[in-house]
Amino acid sequence: MYEAIPVETTSELSLNFNETNKGYTKEESMIEASRCLTCVNPTCVRRCPAHLHVPGYMKQIAKGNFQEALKVVYNFFPIAGTCGRICFHPCMEDCLQNRTPDGYALRIPMIRRAAADFGDINKLIIRPGFPTGKKVAIIGAGPAGLTCAYHLRRLGHDVTIFDKEKAPGGQLYYTIPKFRLPKDVLINECSILTKLGVIFKFGVNIGKDVGVEQITNDFDAVFIAIGAMKPITLNIPGEECNGVMHSLDFLKEVNEMRIKSLHGSVSVIGGGNVAIDVLRTVIRLSPDELHIIYRRSPREMPASKGEIREFIEEVVQHHVDIKDVDDAKEKFMLFEVLENEKSRTPTKVVAHFYTQPVKFSESAGKLTSIISSPVRLVNDPSNPRGKLIVDKDTTFELKTDMVIIAAGERPDVASLNLKELKTTRWNTIVVDNELKTSISKVFAGGDVTNGPASMIEAIRDGKNGAYALDKFLMEHVHN
Ligand SMILES: Cc1cc2nc3c(=O)[nH]c(=O)nc-3n(C[C@H](O)[C@H](O)[C@H](O)COP(=O)(O)OP(=O)(O)OC[C@H]3O[C@@H](n4cnc5c(N)ncnc54)[C@H](O)[C@@H]3O)c2cc1C
Ligand code: SF4
Questions:
Q1: What pLDDT is stored for residue 1 in this prediction?
Q2: With a 6 A CB cut-off, is 96 part of the ligand 2 pocket?
Q3: Which atom belonging to ligand 1 lies closest to the Cα atom of 141?
Q4: Is the pTM of this model over 0.85?
Q5: What CA–CA distances, in Å, run from 1 to 9, 31, 104, 111, 306?
């Protein structure tokens, strides 16, 4: 019978910033990996955006060869332990074990994490390729930029990564909470890039401190991987007042320990995975009240069921045990659990669904309350999610000391000051299937081309970008 992954239970958890997921022991990972059918035509590999060869490392882990398993992953990308912790794992949905009687998809990322936990990246022999004499500049040290640099060095090109921040990792370092991804794991994995000879230039804001034109003159090619970090605003009165923050700024302040506790009433607006990261972070900082504000119902929240469940489990006294219901229904029921179970935190948690903030009230520039209107969902043949009707004639006030808006993000391509760069109406950079932009020598990938997506899609683009850049650079050698 399948044994679920040993995640610390809520009763064991003290709500701090230590990692919540212990991962597998050696033995557990070997047992799990030995369930792999090593399929001839592995659907997990097809489904993984980076086409990571899952059965290749499963075979090694099943035999206890963690170092060999690590080697397999490092043929694809350099952040195995990071990826094992936070990947959204589309591969699991297509794992063929799902279709066997009594079968259950392998916990693929957790087994991958075991390769990193029990293998040793310092013992991996990864060398730069034979020098080509070509120089590439990468703008952005998130997963797309890091993966691109990793493969370019292995192909023999010189690589310099510019980042406006002070550490590598992009969102993985600055905004993903430490209780999901400890930063020493990421930083240790990034050290392999320095060993490979990648040059990091931190604290350089391209477009402001140095123009992209200058970078394109100084380098043979450029890869733009600046992510999607510009918050989408609500565009309502009072949004600029003291006490209103955007999610990425809030998460960064907490990760950098500039915010260590919260008091009074805190309200979080949004229903996606980032909103859940904000809620889980706020609950650890123990304000008196936490209000969740979302304009639709819980079943329509874009956040994954797993992320919502982890938040609810952290708040309520008992382990949440809801089985055999569909994803959307379960989201609804999870919030019912939140209402009905005894809270294990000193913070009172209240969820307000079908609620649309229309104004932030302030006094002397400081936030005092949120004015909201009720929302009605009506059928709309042109929109499968239905149409929201905000009843602006009715308003209600919620006294609050702090608001954190998690309404989404967009790339900030304008900050690069590149007029000739073609973009979409979502502000993403237009690229062809080789990740070439509208400007000669300039390629792009990751969230800046996909919009806010996932780490594994950024990794895919980093890898594909490196091979496309290599082709471009080597064509120019031979011509
Ligand atoms: C709170 C949060 C939680 C998430 N959780 C998950 C998760 O659990 N699993 C998952 O798969 N995905 C998750 N994601 C999404 C994932 O983090 C992103 O899809 C991924 O990081 C995108 O990678 P990227 O390399 O394209 O860009 P980013 O990671 O955004 O990195 C961009 C880098 O570019 C730098 N930069 C930007 N502009 C400039 C400039 N002008 N000059 C120099 N440097 C610049 C930035 O400082 C940054 O380091 C989460 C995102 C957020 C915000
Ligand atoms: S689909 Fe599942 S069982 Fe098949 S190779 Fe991939 S992980 Fe193994």
A1: 37
A2: yes
A3: 49
A4: yes
A5: 20, 12, 10, 18, 22
